[in-house]
Amino acid sequence: MQLYELTIRDAQRLLRRGEISAVELTQAVIDRIVAIDNRVRCYLTLTPELALEMAAAADERLRNARQTGEDRLSPLLGIPMAVKDVLCTEGVVTTCGSRILEDFVPPYDATVVARLKAAGFVMLGKTNTDEFAMGSSTENSAYFTTHNPWDLERVPGGSSGGSAAAVAAGEAMGALGTDTGGSVRQPASFCGVVGLKPTYGRVSRYGLVAFASSLDQVGTLTRTVADSALLLGAIAGADPCDSTAAQVPVPDYLAELEGDIRGVRIGVPDEYFVPGMDPEVEAAVRRALVQLEALGAIVEPVSLPHTEYALPVYYLIAPAEASANLARYDGVKYGYAAPDVGELWELCKRTRGEGFGAEVKRRIMLGTYALSAGYYDAYYRKAQKVRTLIRQDFEQALERVDALIVPTSPTVAFPIGARADDPLQMYLSDIFTLSLNLAGTCGIAIPCGFSQGLPIGMQVLGRPFAEATILRIAHAYEQATPWHTSKPTLKRGLESRADHE
Amino acid sequence: MALTRQEVAHIADLAKLSLTESEVEHFREQLSAILDYMTMLQRIDTEHVAPTAQVSGISNAARPDVVRPALPVEDVLANAPARKDGYFCVPPVLEEAP
Predict the structure, then answer these.
(1) Is A327 close to B16, i.e. CB distance below 8 A?
(2) Which residues share a beta bridge with A174?
(3) With helix as H, strand as E and coil as C, how does A402-430 read?
(4) Which of the pair, A153 or A71, is modelled with greater confidence?
(5) Which of A126, A337, A389, A441 is close enough to A85 for a disulfide, judged by CB 3.0 to 4.6 Å?
């Protein structure tokens, strides 16, 4: 096994025992990036010098700890990871995948980045994303499209596609992503990794460039469920800089991971098995349910009757909030400014017209329309009311069962370009992930099989702040199945799938 | 629900977005199709349903009103496209009277 293939948990053990150094580990991942990122294209910005400095500092702390016998070290000390480029990093350019922030260098760190720094992590760089996290494939990035490591002709999913592909391909041992409607879970599914979307308020949003403030949440991308538990433990918790970050104690997620799932009640909503979905995706999730029963879980049907309305509700609320949040890009305070303008409104309109890409403009237009006089009640307020019904569906179902299991996306990764010209088709790849953000609770996407060599994902959804429960169920399933041990081939098209026949 | 070009131009003006003629037409078609899809929401009776604006359950989070250091002005202005004397600089808003 190569160093870059280690899980965070295994690397951490080797680092503590002094069998490897953080500099060696970091160099191994940097070498991997240099060798393959011209094909996968995960990173918008690489920070190898900073990474090696951070690794050297981690080695110093590890050496001291070995000498003094200190054993309460952060589990992320010396671990090389990636950060999605919508999270502010002090002194390191943060573009949000947009031309409008091409040269933006944040003067402060996002709280999650500051917490990882305090934990001694090693930052490899900033990963590609759909512009302002609006998209499901990274094709909306203003810079380039990331390629799926399982088949380079396919999308990695999005918007955290750079983070998911980096973790899958060995270009990072873990990564931060963000999830507004599935942007951590859907790319995790397409790339065959683990993607955790915490409960709204579990993790601070301070320094996360705002897209839809009532839905945005920082999440994690890792190769195993245990790594996800480690990373969540490092970033979760209240923050004086974000009043929506909840004052709820953070448990030791890793300690709560072990233990069997006998008697755990799992609900399966019929509404998530729809006509038109890939039959192999449905079959894989059904097989997983049988496996969970064999592990002692009690599987029963539940209903989330308003599921079909999640898509229209989401695509009214998220664009409405985005249209307000993105009003800040006016060519005055930071970012791109249109040249040669004589008047303030002209500066604002031309800066935004020239600086934003098509999907961002489309959502600003849609959101502005939904909020405009005469349409507010029919669209925005109506969507907010139906959001209440969607939330109540989850509350009622999760009163009866401990968790829900559903597919992550109706299909496996689709070819680059296949949906780029049809926004509604693109939006449909998120139908199984949007409801969770509207309900505001937590979910984790894990691999549950392959269809023609491409990973299939399923989600375990839980009650608000019950991350420990969904992690435990996901961990039990993962340990009983081989999916997380498969490695992507970095091949193209049919060639990549021939290996799996 | 077919939008007119005038309606699209009006929304673009509200959103402070300059759009090309072809963008106006493109968005007219796409937004019309998307809004058509949204009409499915009208099927649900929500007369007695309260809207959800956010799900945190937190309201009015307050902290002690204590003076704390903020970012230095130089750092705040570092990303500004134009600045002058410690301020952001913008084109004229009001012209001087002739």
Answers:
(1) yes
(2) A222
(3) CEEEEECCCCCCCECCCCCCCHHHHHHCC
(4) A153
(5) A126
| Residue range A175-187, pLDDT digits in tens | 999 999 999 999 9
SS3 assignment, position A196: strand
Cβ distance A370 to A383 under 8 Å? yes
Span A146-157, average pLDDT? 98
In the numeric block, which tokens belong to residue A103?
A: 């040269």
What three-state secondary structure class fits B87? strand
DSSP-derived secondary structure letter, B96:
P
- Are residues A107 and B75, on separate chains, in Cβ contact within 8 Å? yes
Which uninterrupted H or E stretch holds A460? Answer: strand A454-462
Identify which of A426, A360, A425 has the alpha carbon closest to the alpha carbon of residue A157: A426
Nearest-Cα residue of chain B relative to residue A326: B15
Report CB contact under 8 Å: A440, B90.
Answer: no
Give the per-residue pLDDT at A500. 52
Give the residue from chain A lying closest to B73, CA to CA: A107
Instruction: State whether A201 and B49 contact (CB < 8 Å).
Output: no
Taken in order of first residue, the domains within chain B and their CATH numbers are: 5-42 (1.10.20)
Contacts of A309 in chain B (CB under 8 A): 40-41, 44
Asked if A249 has any chain B CB less than 8 Å from its own CB, the reply is no
Residue with tokens 């269809």: A451
A415 touches chain B (CB under 8 A): no
pLDDT at A501: 43
Q: A239-252: per-residue pLDDT in tens?
A: 999 999 999 999 99
Give the pLDDT confidence of A225-272 residue by residue, as tens digits: 999 999 999 999 999 999 999 999 999 999 999 888 999 999 999 999
Task: Please provide the DSSP assignment of A66-113 as one string.
Answer: HHHT-----TTTT-EEEEETTB-BTTB---TT-GGGTT---SS--HHH
Question: Which tokens is B94 given?
Answer: 């009001």
Ordered structural domains, chain A, with CATH: 12-306+388-500 (3.90.1300.10)
Q: Does A241 touch chain B (CB under 8 A)?
A: no
Q: In angstroms, rounded to a whole number, what is the distance separating the alpha carbons of residues A403 and A267?
A: 6
CA-nearest residue to B7 within chain A is: A369
